[in-house]
Hints:
The protein is α/β, with parallel strands linked by helices. It is 31% helix and 12% strand. Helix 3 runs parallel beside helix 5 (158-169).
Amino acid sequence: MLCLQMGSDQYLPRQLSGAPEPPRGRGALSNPSSRFEKLHVEPDPEDDSEPSPARRTEFYRDTSETLINYNDSPDIGFEASMNPYRGCEHGCIYCYARPTHEYLGFSAGLDFETRIMVKDRAPQLLRAELSSPRWKPQVIALSGVTDPYQPVERKLRITRGCLEVLAEFRNPVGIVTKNHLVTRDLDLLSVLARSDAAMVYISVTTLDPELASRMEPRTSQPQHRLDAMARLAEAGIPVGVMVAPVVPGLTDHEMPAILAAAAAAGARSAGYVVLRLPHGLSSLFPEWLQAHYPLRSEKVLSQIRSVREGKLNSAEFGTRFQGKGTLADQIAQMFRVSCQRHGIQARSPSLSAADFRRPGGQQLDLFR
């Protein structure tokens, strides 16, 4: 017997939605060809002789010779960043970094979350770059693209190795993550925080555990992220909440509750980003919506377009993160009012590079 609740997607059988069954534990439903590929193979939907490929995660060594990246975008609050991993096993369906995997010859779909490039020499590369007299001490964003605390970090500890170097040099770092694993490194972050050189933002998209498990299948659950905020705050590490992405028609109504919960957990600053769907995301996200929330799919896409001047994406500096239009203005006002109500600063605290030093000239006391 089919159980169908009118006006809700919760009990709609997936076979009635016309969408494929999502791979277990993955965000994307498909693996479309890279936009740079001139030739691609389209499987015959009626041919079931070939089994679906296994979706075990594969890791590849990244042989980059430098680690620190630089940007000159006028609407990004940092110039330097580093990414220990390319691709992310968290599998967030909305991730703006998905199209970057196409530069590697991979897909923005399942490849992005199952074929991960690992910079196993990242701590050594970072040490060499910070030791150079050409390095101008400044905040490094960790990371600017993919999550530095994705699941494999628990085993490989590359992000921790980078933090050990940053703590030794007292170089300031700003972290954005949605994984509770960041609390493993409270010791190193505390060292940096004593020099006003550390800030951690925990990304929270929704407080609904079921929605989170569908949209962000391998991340920490919302309650665990709030616990991470509390533990960071208790350790004296400045912590903020990043409400990102705000999905119009799906998660935008949760913003006040997210900010209230984050403030109660110890967050003292906040930011937000409205969803945009560049390149392959313009097909991957609608496919996900149709599979999981078919009755809401058109409404959500319509509201995304309403903040993107009729499109699913906008790359215009100054408005690409918050969008334009009446709905975008309403979201911005809701953010400002909620921050004021809960005593949260709608901006990041300044970090300091005043204590930066290079090893060699004097003995460093790492845990002073």
